[in-house]
């Protein structure tokens, strides 16, 4: 996350770090969100180069990845299901689910994310946040050891698709979020992670988007593009 701040432990209790234990250095590849005790939703593009999913693992309840506290739980991946119509050139249908080898035990640091069905008016939600262990500057690409968070605004898709912005590259199953001036955005390593918005009436968050793509990070009129979980509710 570019332009974010350190999240406090347990602030986003559904976020997971998807890791490849064969990678040298930071093993973090992507984010994801726990939606049942045994299933995680994330982005399909995280697995383009994944040949041996058996070496991958999912860490939940973490804040600092280099020092997992006693509240963290680690699971292996039993099954990966990528959307059958995912297209890595157009970023269409950029969604996947992971089945964990054992259920996760919920706690004050680990909770399930709420996926909205068709009845929620997502565009009316005002208080939205991104989070992740991805790059904190667009240039360096160095991922963050401590979970980062930032507040963002949902941006109307027709504006996001206009000629000075993304010029028609945004699909109807996407959301755009960030700021017209850039500055705050998701970046490499945040992929698959949550875009959440607080309910307008209740004291809880909806998982409305999965970090999918963007042109660079934190550029003006090039906000983060997210897969709408509401659109894929039935698929999930």
UniProtKB/TrEMBL annotation:
Catalytic activity: Preferential cleavage: Arg-|-Xaa, Lys-|-Xaa
Gene Ontology biological process terms from the UniProt entry: acrosome reaction; proteolysis
CDD domains in the cross-refs: Tryp_SPc
Domain of life where this protein originates: Eukaryota
Enzyme Commission code(s) on record: 3.4.21.10
GO MF terms held by the record: serine-type endopeptidase activity
SUPFAM superfamilies: Trypsin-like serine proteases (SSF50494)
PROSITE patterns found in the cross-reference section: TRYPSIN_DOM, TRYPSIN_HIS, TRYPSIN_SER
PANTHER family: ACROSIN (PTHR24252:SF8), ACROSIN-RELATED (PTHR24252)
UniProt protein name: Acrosin
């Amino acid at each position: 996350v570019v332009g974010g701040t350190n999240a406090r432990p347990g602030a986003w209790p559904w976020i997971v770090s998807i890791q490849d234990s064969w990678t040298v250095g930071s093993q973090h590849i992507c984010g994801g969100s726990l939606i049942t005790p045994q299933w995680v939703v994330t982005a399909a593009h995280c697995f383009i180069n994944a040949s041996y999913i058996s070496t991958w693992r999912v860490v939940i309840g973490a804040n600092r990845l280099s020092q997992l506290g006693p509240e963290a739980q680690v699971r292996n991946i039993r099954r990966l299901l990528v959307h059958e119509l995912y297209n890595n050139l157009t970023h269409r249908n950029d969604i996947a689910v992971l089945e964990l080898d054992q259920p996760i035990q919920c706690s004050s640091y680990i909770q399930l994310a709420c996926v909205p069905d068709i009845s929620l008016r997502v565009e009316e939600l005002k208080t939205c946040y991104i989070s992740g262990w991805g790059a904190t500057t667009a240039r360096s690409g160095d991922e963050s050891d401590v979970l980062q968070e930032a507040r963002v605004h949902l941006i109307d898709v027709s504006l996001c698709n206009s000629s000075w912005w993304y010029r028609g590259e945004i699909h109807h199953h996407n959301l755009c979020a960030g700021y017209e001036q850039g500055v705050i955005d998701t970046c490499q390593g945040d992929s698959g992670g949550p875009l959440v918005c607080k309910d307008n009436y209740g004291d809880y968050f909806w998982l409305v988007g999965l970090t999918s793509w963007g042109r660079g990070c934190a550029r003006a009129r090039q906000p983060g593009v997210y897969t709408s979980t509401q659109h894929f509710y039935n698929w999930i």
